[in-house]
Amino acid sequence: MTSTELPVRPARPVRGPVPRAGARRGSAFGTGTNLTLGGSRLTRALALGALAVFAAVWLLPLLWALLTSFKSERDASDPGHWFWPGSGFTLDGFRTVIERGDLPLWMFNSLLISTAVTVVTVLVSAMAGYAFSRTLFTGRRWLFAVTVAAVLVPQQVLIVPWFRQMLALGLIDTYAAVILPQTVMPMMVFILKRHFDSVPRELEEAARLDGAGHWRVFWSIVLPLSRPMLAAVAIFVFITAWNNFLWPFVSTSDPALMTLPVGITSVKDAYGVQYAQTMASAVLAALPLVLVFMLFQRHIVKSVATTGLGGQ
Amino acid sequence: MSAPQAAPRPATGTPPAAARRFPSPGLLFALPFLVLFAVFMVWPLVQGLWMSLTDRSLSAHPPSFVGLDNYAEALGDAEMWRSVGHTVLFTLISTVPLVLVALVMALLVHTGLPGQWVWRLAFFAPYLLPVGVVSLLWLWLYQPDLGLYNHLLNSLGLDGVAWLSDESVAIWAIALTTLWWTVGFNFLLYLAALQSLPDHLYEAAAIDGAGAWRRLGSITLPQLGRITGVITVLQVLASLKVFDQVYLLTKGGPNGSTRPVVEYVYDVGFTGYRLGYASAISYVFFALVVLASVAQLTAFRRREK
After folding, report:
1. Which domains can be identified in chain A, with CATH numbers?
2. B301 CB near a chain A CB, below 8 Å?
3. Fewest CB atoms less than 10 Å from the CB: which of A27, A288, B62, B113?
4. Which value does ipTM take for this structure?
């Protein structure tokens, strides 16, 4: 995972036209306006050609992996059949991988760990964001300043002390060790605080006058009003956790606790020359998130765009 | 934490009274995050700094304080500097295409040509693959005898390339893999920015009879200046942290010619068991990241003025 911890966006300049909060039309990713290229037939044809080339270059590796996964091992390692199989397609690769049984286990681990990380992160970040946005308490300003500064701390710096800490707590090779450190995402607190700042307060004030406490206001008014932003943050956190490699790799050595990204690479070491099998396991491992993406394309695209830029 | 129930319904309704209560409800709301933050970020940072001043190892012997010895050793450690060099080189050769290709892709898709769904899926799907899958796939693509790319080169009459085992090629091959894998993220950021450009600029230009290229050069690209700055900052920070794909594709080889500084930390700490020294190198890396962020943000601010 590369773009995991994101830096604070610099203070928004007065004149900066791009991208303005709330300026996106309707669904942020409807078909773009044609205004940037009304142009001639030739320009359009050139643009279409360029797009097709890019798409082909980007899809070819996936297509080839897919083809390999349906080949027999003999065809997969035969240079004469580098593209199309000589002896037809087969499900042998998939069958072997599934029968070995560890892939479903790693998927389950990834699902469990990513879900736990997402639930905890979204809940504590939303509560903290609400506290920083709506309440007064001693130290609020500097605690928020420290949180914002911490956005710059790379996970990579913390690996060694986390490992020591988990050894000391006796948590190495437990789910807790993998999950807990991943739930600290100052960026999400920052994003949600800024979001709450932009939510109108009238409803909350009315509820307060009716005697509702902070928890009630937070749970029954603020959270439901913020559903789209919470969804965006949750999707982003989930993808980040699902694809996280370094910490799950360092904190688990027991294959029964491995996540998908970690476990799948151990297949390579054990069955390095079985290309069809290797690609079959890669295809299976890729499947869940790609399927989810196809179902929720618009939400995911929007989540990445808003969260990736620090909650615009 | 023996925190009382978060924010009980106040008997006296007014906010000022609530704000004066101790512990105030606000603090209780922030508490779960602050506890996790203190335990898994602040404390590890302090502990890492302390470890970097000791000779702690993973073996049993008790650590002793060694002052700045680890840092002195790091500054004179040719292997560390070499790994820092690889990280910086990787950051340069990955950031430039990751920004430019994303921009071109977004401009092309934003033209509103048919097939929107296909383009977005094609460019963004790789970003959704776990790094383990990406590395398995690219080890296969780069395979010298059977891999797709050498097949294609051969069919063009060219010699195959030892993608991951040639010292002068490996880091470029890793950058190429990274481009394929993560460009979709920047592509989406650019696409969002393009879609929020104000229409009236284009309407005015259309009335003035400006052609497509003219509008691209005079309106679109200048308007994208700021977002390009943001994406570049994000990308540099992401690239400086590179470890996963390098470790999985080459394990830092051949002959350590691709090992980034984060992998050096991992090797020293978890293979060499020298946690103290690994912590010191972590802090050198941290300094590098902070330096890069501050430099970029300063440059950014100056340009905005």
Report:
1. 101-270 (1.10.3720.10)
2. yes
3. B62
4. 0.82
